[in-house]
Amino acid sequence: MTEVSQHIGGRIRSYRKERRLTLQQLADRIHKSRASVSKYETGEITLDVETLYDISAALGVDPCQLMDYRPPAPAPEPAASLSLPRHSPFFEASRLYFYYYDGRFQRFKDGVIRIQKGADPSGSCDAFLTITSVSSTGRSSEVRYSGKVVYSDMLIRFSFVNQYNSLEEDLLYIFNPLELRDFTEGLLCGISSADLMPCAFKCLVTLTPQEPNEQLKQHLLFTPNEVRRWQKLNMLMVDNCGPSV
Question: Alpha-carbon distance 120 to 105, whole Å?
Fold first, then answer.
């Protein structure tokens, strides 16, 4: 039993429970015994590549989301003197929480961004986004994306593709705050799969989960003062308007 097998097994168990599947139901989907699936989850059996892909397909996740094991970082050498961190916590985070308000449907949408760090923390990294929405009937749905994240001093840029519809691509830009805080604002833009129209949303990205309430909703809405300020600074442009507008 290795740490890698235990980690992958824990990921399988987490996604299985999230989808409310029993061990037997997952076993039936991949044509294995219940006992085998149980040992996959505990790490007692090392998974072969084919079975790993079968499990990821049965759970509806990207294989990389099961294989995101990161070995423990070596202990840092004692610093000669104390200094402020070079980057904000958003630069170092491996998980971010994402919120916006969809005015078309009058409801919150939230998500989790998982970042798989590479050997070079200043380069491009793999990223996975899961957006959840809850309808007026209380029914929830999820849309999953995979892509990349690139860091700069002022902005962090995510580019995502819908795992089930490769024609749907989204860009998420968030500010990389210089001061230490657990939230930042950003802009999500792309082509909506709901009506195949361009869309852009003001969003909030945080280091810790937030409660969707009226205060959060007001934070996510564009205010008249913001619109006037962007127009004055020529930061907001609406093009291709008809003569009657």
Answer: 41
Q: Decide if pLDDT at 220 tops 80.
A: yes
| pLDDT on residue 192 | 73
Domain 89-232: state its class: mainly beta
pLDDT at 94 over 70: yes
Written as six digits, the tokens of 221 are: 């809405």
3 state SS for the chain: CCHHHHHHHHHHHHHHHHCCCCHHHHHHHHCCCHHHHHHHHHCCCCCCHHHHHHHHHHHCCCHHHCCCCCCCCCCCCCCCCCCCCCCCHHHHCCEEEEEEEECCCCEEEEEEEEEECCCCCCCCEEEEEEEEEECCCCCEEEEEEEEEEEECCCEEEEEEEECCCCCCEEEEEEECCCCCCCEEEEEEEEECCCCCCEEEEEEEEECCCCCCCHHHHHHHCCCHHHHHHHHHCCCCCCCCCCCCC
> Going by CATH, does the domain composed of 3-65 fall within 1.10.357.10?
no
The two domains 3-65 and 89-232 share their CATH topology (first three levels equal): no
